[in-house]
């Protein structure tokens, strides 16, 4: 049906939603770029902003912040240092008449290793020497000539130039030449000289007694070998043994490069698995028993890096890899390596550093053990136990080594060395007890380390095995004391004395043995020395070596 409309059409009003007050937000433009840091050093801020675009008919504005701020830290701000005292004034620049002198001062280094000081570091002043007396002026002395002889007293000369003539036309006063003696030491006699010698695929060039000659390491290693010309009791020169303490075999060098590649891996598990592979490869190299003394030092560094990486990656190696780690240490401390360690200790106290690496590895393993669980390792040169005990109640006294365990080597089964720690020692302060629920207790008996370590001062020698107990966290000092019994290694020694190793001394050597922390008990039996010690540390017995007839 058609519908017809007549008259004016009705009017309609279209309402724009944006016009309804309070209903629509504005729109943000893009963020601006971040501003420069508000400071040139230290901690500052960077900002960026954006603009809210409002609709034509108004709105509530834009939701969210108009400005954002973030911290920035470009560089550590310089620390103002302190000037040290001025040095003495230099000599006058002329020998007569008016000249200048200089002096300087140094800026002291801050705890950060660098510093800036305000003010000048040098000063200049005028100086006046007596009148030149009408003569010319001397120039500066030139350098001394080479000595005319290498020994048996030669001479050197130096010169200076007279720069023009004086007011009255006279030349300079004094001499333009100086002579002095040099190289006064006596020339070595023919019997005091080591002649050219070819040994270990190297030519060692002629040298006087007391001199050291250097050569490249053999082709299978990097670094430098050295050899010293010595004098015997009759004053006749002879070559000492070559030193390879700075030689590192290419295979050990490649292994270290492989270690660095594993460290570069971002994923913790991959880094941890890589360290296990390094341990297996290092054991294979050590088992060949074909290495330089420098390889022993380098292996200590590899084991330290492996331990640190396991720790940072929170990766616990498998029991088989733990056994391999300690087997490497045992091979390194084999008595066959005694001469290599003596050579290596001329460069670094590597055996002492190895002792610290072993302790750190023990605590890495112990922290992953279950409470009351113990771990035993026995090798040809080591006995190691690791256990984890709750701080609230250590279950029993510590007796080490534990006899009758399966897998004991003959030397370990028959060892007379003993360690006894009463369980009452394991106490912490109340604050530490809340933070640390468990003790990790490690004990190590080193069969050969006492013969390998840097020796104490003459006439003393290490006359026992080395026994270490390491506990973390360290219990607070208390009674009763630690009881240690150590059997003698050397015959004919006298005056045994119980000692502990002082880890606080940064220079590892003869000064590290401390007798004050241990009491040597009188013992009728010569089969062992009994000690009562107030520290948990590394224990040994020093004795005076027998006098030669």
Automatic annotation (TrEMBL):
The keyword Chloroplast does not apply. Residues 390-549 form the GAIN-B domain. Residues 181-251 form the G-protein coupled receptors family 2 profile domain. Keywords: Disulfide bond, Membrane, Phosphoprotein, Secreted, Signal, Transmembrane, Transmembrane helix. It is found in: Membrane; Secreted. Its main location: membrane. PROSITE patterns: G_PROTEIN_RECEP_F2_3, GAIN_B, TSP1. InterPro entries: AGRL2-4_GAIN_subdom_A (IPR032471), Angio_Inhib/Adhesion_GPCR (IPR051867), GAIN_B (IPR057244), GAIN_dom_sf (IPR046338), GPCR_2_brain_angio_inhib (IPR008077), GPCR_2_extracell_dom_sf (IPR036445), GPCR_2_extracellular_dom (IPR001879), GPS (IPR000203). It holds the Pfam family GPS. This is Adhesion G protein-coupled receptor B2. It comes from Cirrhinus molitorella (mud carp).
